[in-house]
Amino acid sequence: MCALRTYRIEVGLRPEFLDAAGDSVKKNIVEDLFIPLDSVRIIRVYSILTDLPRKDVEKLRRALFTDPIIEISTLDKPLADDFSWIIEVGYKPGVTDNVGRTSREAIVDIFGDEARECAVFTSKQYIIKGKIDRRQAEAIAGGLLANDLIEQWRAVDCNEFKKDRGISLPLPIAGKQGRVIVRTFDLDVSDGELVRISKEGILSLSLEEMREIREHFHNETVGRSRSRIGLADKPTDVELECLAQTWSEHCKHKIFNASIEYEDEDGRVERIESLFRTYIKKATDEISGRVPWLVSVFHDNAGVIRFNDRWNLVMKVETHNSPSALDPYGGAITGIVGVNRDPFGTGKGCRLIFNVDTFCFAAPNYSKPLPPRLLHPKRVFKGVHRGVKDGANQSGIPDINGSIVFDERYLGKPLVFCGTGGIMPTEILGEPAHIKKANPGDFIVMTGGRIGKDGIHGATFSSEELHGESPTSAVQIGDAITQKKMTDFLLEARDLGLYRAITDNGAGGLSSSVGEMARMSNGCQLRLDKAPLKYPGLQPWEILLSEAQERMTLAVDPKKLERFLHLAERRGVEATVLGNFTDSGNFQALYNDKTVAYIDMEFLHEGVPEMRLRAAWEPPKHEEPDIPEPDDYNVMLETMLARLNVCSKESLVRQYDHEVQGMSALKPFVGAMNDGPGDAAVLKPLPDSYEGIVISSGICPRYSDIDTYHMTACAIDEATRNAVCVGGRLGSLAGLDNFCWPDPVQSDKTPDGQYKLAQLVRSNMALYDYCTAYDLPCISGKDSMKNDYMIGGVKISVPPTLLFSVLGRMDDVRKAVSMDAKKPGHFVYVVGLTRNELGGSEYFAHHGFIGNNVPKVDASLAKKTYVALAEAIDQRFVASCHDCSDGGLGVALAETAFAGGLGIDADISLITMDGALRADLLLFSESQSRFVVTVAGRKRKEFESVMGNVPCARIGKVTEAPVLKLSAGSKSPIVSADVFKLKQAWQRPLNW
Q1: Does one domain contain both 102 and 223?
Q2: Of 157, 181, 215, which residue is a domain's last?
Q3: Cα torsion angle, 155, 159, 163, 164, sign
Q4: Fewest 10 Å CB contacts: which of 492, 717, 778, 960?
Q5: 822 with 900: CB under 8 angstroms?
Q6: How far is residue 55's CA from residue 49's CA, in Å, rounded to a whole number?
């Protein structure tokens, strides 16, 4: 064999072929950076470090890397020609290179053991033609093509370019084997020094928590047990990092479990011992006595409900906000593939059948100066979208439901909600599939990807605001292909009964996964030196804390270990034994047979001090606007349809694969042209049954500016009514709550912490009230409490945001109803009561106001309405049903009409309302629990009979002429608009 050397293969499209990817990059440069260009073409670069002879690398160039029909390539000479500038972008050392890893696997498949020493590093060249200078070229590179956090780049103009040598970047070789160092920390220091240790170590531990750790290591019993195994009475870096991860806000939910003194606006004070136990868990506990289908809630990675006698449904929604602020693509793809592992790691595992996602961004047309370290919102938007798209599509899991919300306050931290659902057999080999157990003596086995420095401090990083020293190491890039191989193998192993328990390696890596599973057996012995690494040079604490993706941890019976490892090898999945679960009562980690961590299990998981916080509520007062009535209602309706929170997201959602696995019964877009906004998704998961799954969501952070109690009520109501729209029923629906809040802890950095905590208290109060009213148990949830940006005196905090997701079953997917008007002559109804409730509305926001009359949900009336409407849908009296949400009735009527390619002629003065309202307020009020329903003439009486005890007004008819004609009590219409023109206004803003 030859000595190791680097070969460089460059691959590009033949000149006669259109470079669509290059054209897309050019469009982004022109539109986002306002730099005119003639053309952009892209060249893929593979730098191969290998001892293979040149003739073998030449074979790889031709047979592996180049499509001879449409591509040309070179080996060790530049392919670029005839350009103004060339920009090459590649990864920095230590960043996951998924294409490089896959390329290496392919080379090993071809040459076998001869290629084991091979490494492949990928990069891209952007071949630019146009009259631009160096400043513009560097703006293109740093402002659009590369993320300096994880990528390196170089820009060269045609005069600098050497045709014999070309352009290249340094190989991003990570890690060299160095001396293993396990540090100890002397905590017998001043309070200021304890704070410094926490801050510099990115531990996110409070002073009280640092003191608690110090006291624990002073304990004589602890000291004696440590001395027996050769440890000092000072914590090691491994132990301190493990405690910080386990006690992080991200993992321990300290604010939701705090003791809170809450004072309301009248001065009444009450003590709340844990928001979670007092409101969320209490509601579910009460409802569990009224619904028979709860299986597993709040104690595993995801919630589990009964689907039928043979199957359970599993679902979890997570956030990945902080990493997405630094690297939108990497943060988002990690978010989606990471949440895939939550339901997969629930019970003994499940088959993943759908994804959902909701994003919150600042407006993509943001034009003000950007604060330090922030990327432009449009770049964040596109990166997050591409990350979720790649992660979902490459995993073969359909993305079926979600939303996108815009508010300038998401500039500092975007919110990236990703969720996944799965289906799990009720039993596997005669045992309940939702129950798992790690027994003393079981082997700790890690499967999937290898460990690197990526993702270190992810849990603690996400437990604080984004600041100038936020660690770049917290960023990961997920690999959906590696994870898919692993999950396919593990489902096979599950059905063969080859493991007892499984969980994912997410926040905190092995520290979290092994530490949590060790609670089942009451101890573990983890051998960090056995862990497979991406590259040498990791210290023991880094191996323990790394959040490198695509990994699961399992408990394997010693009698079944050989079969498990053999199956893993046959399926091409790496599986490594890392130690054993024990009943020692201690979390023990070793490196080269030397103990580097020895922590009492009870202290590790229960030792964190309880936070004691104070919350004080004072209702805000906003200016109540006096808005003149619109001169032209047609123009105003078009304007409302074009608002970012209302307009179509189809051009983005269409890039998700929502048909893979072939289960979709009601799709994200419906109607005559399949472009109407569906209210909820319906899946048919079993080939031998018409039973279905309903998935919906609700989110309305604008209302938080007035009262988070009503914001939460509206989010729950929106998710519920979206499910009811398509055929869901109260009593068959479960909820998932995801709170994203600005820091609610009073401090110098957060002088309004008591108010923000009161907002959180009120939100939880509403969750209890409305979930119990609707018999809607929460089965899983997550909180993210530090969604702030603070650099250089600039602080940006997100509005208090709750995403409420709903999962349920329906008896027959053939009864599912879509939102589009179906036939001319059908009657149009508005179900529900309309009030003067425009506080926080899109209409007020358009005029620059917030207002005070926030929509309020009448739970009793809403419940009666939902029961009646669900019965009407089940009896097939309803042709279409669409909820009234952002933009109110005017938007809902327009969407119903243009989705069906039909018109509507209606008198809005006939709707059921609370007091007389001006026409614009009637059209754009965002009162909750309302629907636009169309009904065939022959079913009118039956429908009206079923709906007889709830507000339900027949206001007009569907027309063949595609015109939305709305009057307000007079013969002359206030709106007379071509529905296709309305649709164009609705589709235009985000049609990128």
Answers
A1: no
A2: 157
A3: negative
A4: 960
A5: yes
A6: 15
Range of weakest confidence among 91-95, 263-267, 355-359 = 91-95
User: For the chain, how long is the longest CA-to-CA vector?
Assistant: 92
Q: d(Cα 295, Cα 696) in Å, to the nearest integer?
A: 21
290: closest CA among 733, 804, 809? 733
Residue 160 contacts by C-beta under 8 Å, 6 or more apart in sequence? none
Task: Read off the tokens for 652.
Answer: 């983005």
DSSP for 58-104, please give it.
HHHIIIII--TTTEEEEESS----S-SEEEEEEEPTTS--HHHHHHH
**986 and 937 in one domain?**
yes
Residues 881-902 have pLDDT tens digits of: 999 999 999 999 999 999 999 9
Helix axes 859-874, 753-773, angle to 10 degrees: 40
Residue 596 lies in a domain: no
Give the CA dihedral 564, 567, 569, 570, nearest 10 degrees.
180
Chain-centre distance of CA 37, in angstroms?
A: 35
Tokens at 614, concatenated:
């104070």
Is there a single domain that holds both residue 822 and residue 966? yes
Domains of the chain: total: 3
Identify the helix (H) or strand (E) that includes residue 958. strand 952-959
Query: Which CATH number characterizes residue 148's domain?
Result: 3.30.1280.10
Q: Given a cut of 80, is residue 133 above it in pLDDT?
A: yes
- Over the range 963-972, which residues count as b (16 or more CB within 10 Å of their CB) and which as e? bbbbbbeeee
Q: Which of 91, 102, 251, 85 is nearest to 155 (CA)?
A: 85
Q: How far apart are CA 405 and CA 711, in angstroms?
A: 14
Report the alpha-carbon distance of residue 146 to residue 137 in Å, rounded: 12
State the Cα–Cα distance between residues 333 and 317, nearest whole angstrom.
14
In a domain, 555, yes or no: no
Q: Is 573 exposed, middle or buried (0-12, 13-18, 19+ CB in 10 A)?
A: buried
Q: Which two tokens stand for residue 706?
A: 């007035």
59, part of any domain: yes
Judge contact between 14 and 70, C-beta under 8 A.
yes
Q: How far apart are the first and last CA of the chain?
A: 51
The residues that are catalytic are 250, 320
Instruction: Specify if 579 maps to a domain.
Output: no
Domain harbouring 868, CATH code:
3.90.650.10
Of 65, 115, 91, 117, nearest to 173 by C-alpha is 91
Give me the pLDDT at residue 856, please. Answer: 99
Claim to verify: residue 197 and residue 118 sit in the same structural domain: no
Q: Are residues 102 and 197 in the same domain?
A: no
CB count in 10 Å sphere of residue 392: 29
- Domain boundary (110, 133, 157) is at 157
Could you list the beta-strand ranges (E) of 541-647.
551-556, 575-581, 586-591, 594-600, 612-616
pLDDT, tens digit, 9 for 90 and up, residues 285-324: 999 999 999 999 998 999 999 999 999 999 999 998 888 8
Residues 39 and 105 both lie in one domain: yes
The residue type at 467: H
One domain for residues 118 and 206: no
- Domain span at residue 938 reads 630-647+817-992
Residue 541: both structure tokens together: 């604490």
Q: How many CB atoms lie within 10 A of CB 414?
A: 27
Tell me the CA distances in angstroms from 115 to 57, 109, 174, one per residue in order.
Answer: 11, 9, 19
Examine the pLDDT at 471 and tell me if it is beyond 50: no
Instruction: Using CA atoms of 228, 233, 239, 244 in order, give the dihedral in degrees to the nearest 10.
Output: 150
The 3 state secondary structure assigned to 797-852 is ECCCEEEEEEEEEECCHHHCCCCCCCCCCCEEEEECCECCCCCCCHHHHHCCCCCC
Where do we find the tokens 């801050």?
199
**Chain centre to alpha carbon of residue 366:** 23
* Whether 141 and 204 share a structural domain: no
Cβ atoms of residues 613 and 854 within 8 Å = no
